[in-house]
Design goal:
With about 150 residues, the chain is mainly α. It is about 60% helix and about 0% strand. The radius of gyration is 41 Å and the shape is elongated.
Length: about 150
Amino acid sequence: MQGARRATENAPESARPLSPSIDSEVVAVAKRRNITNTDKRRIVLAAAACTKPGEIGALMRREGVYSSSLATWRRQYAAGELSDATVTKRGPKADPARAELKQLALVTHERDRLLVQLRNAQLVIDVQKKVAALLDQLTPPTRFASP
């Protein structure tokens, strides 16, 4: 018992076991793979070239793909969807009618804002006219002598 205790006491720092308070667990971070159409086409063609039993399984393990993915890519390849020219983005597609409605809403909002600004400017002009008329009434007319 004492021999075991002495062995760890005299061991270098790197050989000693970690204390229980230190967390040495490595947490894996999931990352989604992005496989390009070129790679999908290459894998489909390689799978088509497989002739011996077990070759397709070995190919899928080597490439890290599932059989369902390979089946989907085969259908896409047969439909001609795996060319580099047809890169489709994920998410909602652009709708021209929706873009037109959005543009119309922006223009309408701008028009309403400008109408409010115009009404305010007309109000200020009306007030200035009234103030000028009142000032004309308060000041006596000056008579100029004619020569």
